[in-house]
Each structure stands twice: as structure tokens, then as C-alpha cells.
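Field: COMPLEX_INPUT
Field: COMPONENT_COUNT = two
Field: RESIDUE_TOTAL = 442
Field: MODE = joint
Values follow.
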Amino acid sequence: MENINKLIKGISVFLLYILVPYVLNMFLPSITESTVIELLYRFIFMFLLLLLFVLIYKDDIIRDIKAFKEKPSRVIKTSIIYFLCLIGGIMVISSLIYLVYPDFSYTNSGLIDSLFEENFFIMIIYVFFLTLFTEQIVFRKVFRDIIKNKYFFIIFSGLIYGIFQIGYVVSDVNDLLTVIPFAYAGMILSSSMEKTDNIITPCLVYMFYDLFLLSGILMGI
Amino acid sequence: MKKNLNLLITFLLIIISIGVLVSKVSSSIEENKDVKTKVLSKTNDNFTKTETENEVIYEIIDDDLTYSWTFDKNDDLKNALKDNMEIDMDLKLDIVPNIQDDYLSSMVSNDDLLVIKFSHHGEIPTKAKITLDVNDKYKNGERLYLYYLNEEEEQIEYIDKGLEVKNGKVEFTIEHCSNYFLTGSIVQEAVNNPKNINLIIIVMVVVIIVLIASTLFQNKK
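Field: COMPLEX_OUTPUT
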């Protein structure tokens, strides 16, 4: 019965994660022409969604926070190691892709860059807070609760995470290649959660990675 | 668990209600949309013809608007040149930064359109690569969609995607001249769109099947 409960919870969270942004994409562009207001609406709805996810997994999250407070060094140390694996791996994978396919560019990078340029602070909160926690709950917590085999969990959740990062559109080689580094990132985040059995670990890895990218943006790289 | 499910159902109902309400409001907003447009002048055209080993390039500077046509040196082009294509065919085009007419605005809900109107209408002797300065409208790195406005069939037709803005310019290939438009996001109303929705459904179904199968497998154990 406990497994069935986890399955219902997991599928509900996963479906909401897909449906809410889809509904927002349908109606937000038509109610305002301002990108900032649109982003703010999106932010509010996604915040409510995250709140709902946290409520659903409230007990587990409280347990993880307590475990982190008891032994923070283990989680932080693991996060740093996995963050370094993430950075190194992404660099190697990207270089290999550029070698094979010189015209490669990340499918959604242009759009994200322009959003950052126009709405820097909203995007920082959006990425550092909302995306960070929501994605860890959906792709890590939901999948880990249901899939017991650790290798299958890491590979499957990473692959699905990779596909979701390209905005569901796969129509050319570039889109397909973009899945690879993101899927790798997903696998690293899932592995970090598997290692410590604590959702705070992938959150920290993701946060370190965001800080790394942010420093790049601020330095104009 | 019951409490969480109730909360989930309530949230879903709210989202669906808002979606229905806003889509109705948005359709009335779209009908009344009045976007100021700037049509660039076609006077004082400055043509430059450059021939390379494999290509013939016509660069046109038309006041603020710079664009070029590139034709491959193939048999089709040779035949066309014999038929004085240069004289018969008008290479001018206009760009309109936003939705100009009610006709297009009633068909497309995207608000970041760049409409491209070719002076010549109809078939061209061979494929032509158009390079267009879009610096004022889109940022470098943005990836654009190209659509054809088929006025006879009264429909929008998907032509190409992933057109990256490089150095303020975008390149695309056409086989006939008419009215086209660029946009940063997919036009849901268009025909022949890349199969993005199908991919979402496929991924969603795969994830749900895997999660259910994992649960059943666990229960059996």
C-alpha cells in the first residue's frame, strides 16, 4: 500500500510539473505584452506549485533537513565532489560534441541568455530558487521513491531530465546532442542523492553549478 | 495522504478554471490588438553583386535595412540568368517589426513577430539563402522559427526552426517569394510544426509506465 501511495504522489507531481507550465504558456503571452510581468506571473504560479510539492513531501523533506543538521559535513563534502564531477564532465562532453559537430549550440541557450539580460534579478530568483527545488523534487525525489534499483534510477531520471531541458522539441541533430550534457548533469544529481539519501545534496550540487554559471555571466564569459 | 490529494485536486481545478477564463479573455484582447509598425522605405536601393566560385551574392542596403540573397551556382541559376532573372525578378523585401494587420494577428498569438514581405511574389529559379539584419528585434544567440503566411489557404505553414541570430543577422533558405515571418517561439496555430507535443506525450507516457512497472515489481517482490 505504501508503494501505491508513493506512485500516486509521484505521478501527480510529475503530471503537474508538465501541465502547469504548459497551461501558463498557453495563456500568459496573451494577457500581457510585458516580458517582466509575464515572468512575474510565471514566478507566482511556479512558486505555488513548488509549495504544493513541498507540502506533498513535507515529512521526507523535514527528515532530510534534520539529517543534514546532524551531519552537515557529509552532505556538503559529497556535494562538492559531485559538483566537480559535473563541471568536469560537462566540459569534456561539450568539447567532444564540438569536435564531432562544430555547429553545436545549446538549444535554449539564446533564449535563457536574453531573459537574463532583460530581467536579471527575477531570473536569478527563478533559477536559484524555484527551478532548483522544483527539479530536485520532480526528477530526484519522485523517481527515487518509486524506482528502487539505484542504477536504473540514475540512468532513467537523468535521461528524462535531459529531454525536459531542451523544451520537448527534438527536430534536428543539435537538439539531440543537447540532451547528452543535460542527461549527464541529471545523472550526476541523481547519483549525489543516491549517495547520501538526502534531497539537500542534489540541491547543493545544483546551487554550486548555478553559482559557477552566474560568475561566468557576471564576468561576461 | 488524503489531505495532500484533496489539495492537489483543488489546485488542478483552480489552474484549469484560470486557463479557460484567460483563454476567453485573451481571444477578445487579440481581436483588439493595435500594434504600431514601422515599414521601411524601399527607395534609394543600393545593390552589390559578388560572385564567388560557388555562389552569387546580391547585397542590398535599403536605408536602415541590410540584407542579401545568396544563390548557389547551379544549372537552375545559369538558366535563370540566361532568362535575365536579374531584370525580371525584384529582390527587394520589407520587414515589419510587429503584427501589422488584423488578418495575421487573428491567426497568430505570438507577439515577437518580424514579418518579411518580398516585393516579388511566386516561384524563384533556384533556392535562395536570405541573410537579414535583425539586430533591432532579436539578440545574438536567439534561435528563431520561420513561418510562411499562406494567404490563399489562409494558414500559417512551418518552414524552419533553430535559425540562430549571429552578429545580429539571421539566415534562412526559401524556394519561393511571398510573406514570411520570424518568431522566437513556436506558433501553435501553424501547420507542419515540429512534433513537439507528441514528444511530451511520449515522454509522459513512458515515465508513467516505468513508474507503475517499478511499483508493481516492488509489490511482487
